[in-house]
Amino acid sequence: MPAFFKTVRRHFFTREFLLFLVIGCFNTFNGSLLAKIFELLVDTNLAFNIGYILANVIAYALNSRLIFHEPMALEKCVKFAISYIPNYLIQNIIVLLFYNRLGFPSLAAFVIAAVLGVPVTFLAVKLFAFGRK
Question: What's the rounded Cα separation, in Å, for the pair 85 and 18?
Fold first, then answer.
């Protein structure tokens, strides 16, 4: 089996990834709901960013306790936030493209953005934030 497929299997066909997906679904719901609520108060793009940040605070706590079984710590929280930067960029580009350029409904753009960033985010969180190989 080629090394690429072994790497994919080692990282993505695991209990950790399955739990990450479950928490990710919960996080997607939270982020999308929060963004939709904040959209009542501010611009859609700003609402997305506020929802994203708040949902990821919750995601850090859930990942620490339920997936990686580690106590929460400021250093890991900062690494968690840093590990979400690629996801944040991917999601913002998708929201700008789907909502601003293609005219999708904002909620659809929020959900599409969340789904497409998952694999990158999992690897960043696992390898960087929680130091797992």
Answer: 22
